[in-house]
Amino acid sequence: MASYGTVPATAPPVGVRRTRVSPMSDILLYFIALFIPPIPVFLKTGCGVDLLINILLWILGWIPGVIHAWWIISRSEGAM
């Protein structure tokens, strides 16, 4: 019989946050984003506003394009 008030073994302890490790494909996308940031953004989001924003940022400066691409990759981890 199950006793009431106990936490199942699969639940994380209170206050502990589970973090997911990026799969190998995301690590590869982070590396590609260092050189050509729009490619990983296109692979993650398709042809849309995020891609256009990234292309504009990349044209304005390499670092803003890379930061935006890394943000897009981390925001949608595992969604590939």
Descriptive report:
The protein is mainly α. It has a domain at 24-75. 55% of the residues lie in helices and 0% in strands. The chain has four helices and no strands. The chain has helices spanning 24-33, 38-45, 49-60, 62-75. The longest helix is centred in the last third of the chain and has 14 residues, at 62-75. It is elongated. 22% of the residues are buried.
Question: Any chance you could write out the topology, listing elements then pairs?
Answer:
Elements: H1 24-33, H2 38-45, H3 49-60, H4 62-75
Helix pairs in contact: 1-2, 1-4, 2-3, 2-4, 3-4
Transmembrane segments: 27-43, 55-73
Subcellular location: Membrane
Family: Belongs to the UPF0057 (PMP3) family.
Task: List the keywords.
55% helix, PMP3, transmembrane, mainly alpha, membrane, 80 residues
**What is the CA-CA span between the terminal residues?**
42 Å
- Please describe the biggest sheet, giving its number of strands, its sense, and whether it closes into a barrel: none
Count of strand segments: 0
| Coarse morphology | elongated
What percent of residues adopt helix (DSSP H or I)? 55-70%
Q: Could you say which structural class the secondary elements and strand pairing correspond to?
A: mainly alpha
Name the average pLDDT.
81
Pattern of helices and strands:
HHHH
Low-confidence stretches: none
Tell me the Rg in angstroms.
18 Å
Sheet-strand content, in percent, reads: under 5%
Number of helices: 4
Q: In brief, what are we looking at here?
A:
With 80 residues, this protein is mainly alpha-helical.
